[in-house]
Amino acid sequence: MNIDNAVDNFINYIATEKGLSNNTILSYSSDLKKFIEYLDKSSVTDTKDIKTDIIVRFLKMLKKNGLSHTSAMRYQVTIRNFFKFLMKESVTKSDPAHILELPKRDRKLPDTMDENEINLILNAPSMLKDKKRYFRDKAMFETLYATGIRVSELVGLKLNDIEMTVGYIKVKGKGSKERLIPFGEVAKDAIQQYLEHSRQLYLKHNVDYLFLTERHNRFTRQGFWKLLKEYLKMLDIKKHISPHTLRHSFATHMLEHGADLRSVQLMLGHSDISTTQVYTHLNTEVLKQMYDKFHPRSG
Question: Which residue in 80, 136, 247, 248 is the catalytic one?
Answer without folding.
Answer: 247
